[in-house]
Design brief:
This protein has 75 residues and is mainly alpha-helical. The protein is built from three helices and no strands. It comes from Rhodococcus erythropolis.
């Protein structure tokens, strides 16, 4: 066992994962809010809500990048 922390899994890699998860969750909540506005109101949701919903696929893509970067073998 190596007592040294792995620099590939700590630092920026961890930050990338947290950023990806935060963007995905914020985007998902915006999508739920869009549906809620349609259900409980007669007015359409605002443009800002649609733009915030774009955070969901951006967070998903960042999570894929994180997975590909962290899954590489060290030679």
């Amino acid at each position: 066992m190596d007592p040294q922390p792995n620099p590939r899994t700590s630092g920026t890699g961890n930050g990338l994962f947290r950023t990806a998860m935060a963007l995905f969750i914020v985007g998902f909540l915006a999508i739920v809010a869009i549906f809620a506005v349609h259900i409980f109101s007669d007015t359409p949701p605002g443009l800002a809500l649609y733009l915030v919903a774009l955070a969901c696929p951006i967070g998903f893509l960042l999570a894929i990048v994180y997975t590909l970067r962290s899954g590489r073998r060290v030679r």
